[in-house]
Amino acid sequence: MEWDGATGGVIRCNSCSELRLDTPVEFDGQGSAPCPDQLFLASVSGCLLTTFLHFARRLGADVRSVNIHSGAELSMGEEGYRIRRVSSRILFEAAPEAAELAERCARLSREYCHITRSLEASFPVNVEIEARARP
Question: Which among 36, 44, 87, 126 has most CB atoms closer than 10 A?
């Protein structure tokens, strides 16, 4: 992470392209890129997604689409802002004959996502699963 000289920064990884972050406008930033909170929730969603995809490939689930929506409940106390809860929803579409196997993949991703499992030591993490059959 390197400061961009303004209100954000650039993340550089050895094996990926640069990723920018910025401070939201309501906190005197430019809001030109995701803020750390959004990147945090993207990491939660990303871990659930890649874990789901791992199990889908491994088990041969015919999945048509996967969307993960994550949000956080924040509170303001004497110590400042604090995350109180994270909630995610795994929404997937699968062929009718593969729906049960795809749902198993979603349950496994909820069980094996190392990020959500690690966060549970600090605050509640809720992961819901919603399935849609699509021919």
Answer: 44
